[in-house]
Design a protein that fits this description.
- The structure holds 2 protein chains of 2 kinds.
- By secondary structure, chain A is mainly alpha-helical.
- Chain A has 9 helices and no strands.
- Chain A has a single domain, classed as MetI-like fold, CATH 1.10.3720.
- By secondary structure, chain B is of the alpha/beta class.
- Helices cover 38% and strands 26% of the residues of chain B.
- Classes of the chains: A mainly alpha, B alpha/beta.
Chain lengths: 265, 241
């Protein structure tokens, strides 16, 4: 009896509010995808700068500048990892409202990007640390600069090593973007809340919402696993003229290592 | 003419003094092998020459210039090639791109020119059939040969080898040594840290024996291997003969 009621209510909500739920999904996906990509770029820049060790030939002025930048970046990371994103959204939205007159959506995208950037910087840092020091030494010994070494040797490898963690940030963002409803962006959480408010079918609405989030995160993690597997396949492409069994076995082995599960924060 | 002149170089790691005043010369076209026990300071000395380690005191001149006075060490380092025990091929790039990237970035060579040079040196080390191979799919000996080709691509005037065959399976040692022998015969100046005594005897013009951070003996191979001047040298070499 109760079950029947529950199901028929769910169907009713889906029929009446399906479109607004889909609009919510669209905004959620857009905000979390842009936030993850922008955050990754920010994280690469911040992580790359923090990982640079100046040469002994660097002037003392350069050393001071590097110290100041490092200090600034450390503060940025500490602030954004140490405060709730909901608070960041409110504070930053109102802080800049009078200056740049931005919309809720613009503010939300900026906040989630900068927030993700702080986490990504740490992810990239550990990715960089996982790259063997010999890679840096070889590049420097060839005469490549700090910057060239970072761009062409270290970061590509760091990014590959960190890929599971980077993908995980996307899944976290799909869920955590729900707190951005506090500044009235019409993502999934916001839509569900309005639907619940007008239908008074709280359990049913939030059940639907939870299921949608679950579907989004599951699909995203399957997609990320596929990308990751492709990543590791590319990295062990077989040599054209060598088809000896040993190198083939190696390629297969490395391919299987790519399987890692995505776990939400 | 002296290519490398090292005067009274000291280097400490924390409290451990690894180099305790080393004096050392290498002439143009000379092949010098550095031998000694592990921990004797030979690798550190080699790494000081291209400033992967910064000496605490003393003077190192290469090509007639004090290397500590370079404003841009990248300018200097590209003239000094280095091969490592662990090869250190860039694992994000295939064999060809490993040789192309440094030329593009360091010499600012055009893509066509860089590929041409890369193929030339890969052929020289016998790796021309593996240009598109991933570096994780080739053997240790092949990796080291690619690493040598990569170093040669930026046209160094001096090559440093830091135990190039120590991480290799025995059957792969010879292929790497053969490549090095060819380079030596062509007159490239080389400093080689090695435990391969047969190679040293055959190829080196001089052999330098280090122990506990100082140079104990510096002699041509025929003297070093037949009647070493120092008893510590004799004792060390006994283990290899």
């Amino acid at each position: 009896m109760i079950m029947d009621r529950f199901i028929s209510n769910i169907l009713k909500i889906l029929r009446t509010y399906g479109v607004s739920l889909m609009l919510g999904v669209r905004t959620t996906l857009m905000v979390s995808l842009i936030g993850t990509v922008a955050g990754l770029i920010l994280g690469l820049i911040v992580g790359g700068i923090r990982a640079v060790r100046l040469d002994f030939t660097a002037s003392s002025a350069a050393r001071v500048i590097k110290k100041v930048i490092d200090g600034f970046l450390n503060v940025y990371i500490a602030l954004f990892r140490g405060t709730p994103m909901m608070v960041q959204a409110l504070f930053i939205y109102y802080l800049l409202l009078d200056i740049i007159h931005w919309t809720y959506l613009q503010a939300a995208i900026v906040v989630i990007s900068v927030n993700t950037g702080a986490y990504m910087a740490e992810i990239i840092r550990s990715g960089i640390q996982s790259v063997d020091i010999g890679q840096t030494e070889a590049a420097r010994a060839l005469g490549m600069s700090n910057f060239q070494t970072m761009m062409h040797v270290i970061l590509p490898q760091a990014l590959r090593n960190a890929f599971p963690a980077v993908g995980n940030e996307f899944i976290v963002n799909i869920k955590d973007s729900s707190v951005l409803m506090i500044i009235s962006i019409t993502e999934l959480m916001f839509q569900a809340k309005s639907i619940a408010g007008s239908t008074f079918l709280f359990t049913e609405t939030y059940f639907i919402e939870a299921m949608i989030y679950l579907i989004l995160t599951t699909v995203a993690s399957i997609a990320l696993n596929m990308i990751e597997r492709r990543f590791s396949r590319n990295s062990v492409s077989l040599p054209q003229s060598d088809t000896s069994p040993s190198s083939f076995a190696l390629a297969v082995e490395t391919r299987q290592e790519g399987n890692s599960d995505y776990v939400s924060r | 003419m002296s290519v490398v002149e090292i005067r009274n170089v000291h280097k400490k790691f924390g409290n451990l003094e690894v180099l305790k005043g080393v004096d050392f010369n290498v002439d143009e076209g000379e092949e010098v092998c550095l031998i000694g026990r592990s921990g004797s300071g030979k690798s550190t000395l080699l790494r000081c020459i291209n400033l992967l380690e910064i000496p605490d005191s003393g003077q190192i001149s290469v090509f007639g210039q004090d290397i500590m006075k370079y404003r841009n060490i990248n300018e200097y380092r590209r003239k000094v090639g280095m091969c490592f025990q662990q090869f250190n091929l860039f694992s994000n790039l295939n064999v060809l791109e490993n040789c192309v990237l440094p030329q593009r970035k360091v010499l600012k060579a055009s893509r066509e020119k860089a590929v041409e040079t890369a193929l030339f040196y890969l052929k020289k080390v016998g790796m021309q059939d593996f240009v598109n191979a991933s570096v994780s799919n080739i053997s240790g000996g092949q990796k080291q040969r690619v690493a040598i080709a990569r170093a040669l691509c930026v046209n160094p005037k001096l090559m440093l080898f830091d135990e190039p065959t120590s991480a290799l399976d025995p059957e792969m040692v010879q292929e790497v040594l053969n490549v090095m022998k060819t380079l030596a015969q062509e007159g490239l100046t080389m400093i080689v840290v090695t435990h391969e005594m047969r190679f040293a005897r055959e190829v080196a013009d001089r052999i330098v024996f280090m122990d506990e951070g100082v140079i104990i003996e510096d002699n041509p191979p025929e003297v070093m291997f037949t009647h070493p001047e120092n008893s510590r040298t004799a004792e060390f070499l006994k283990a290899y003969i």
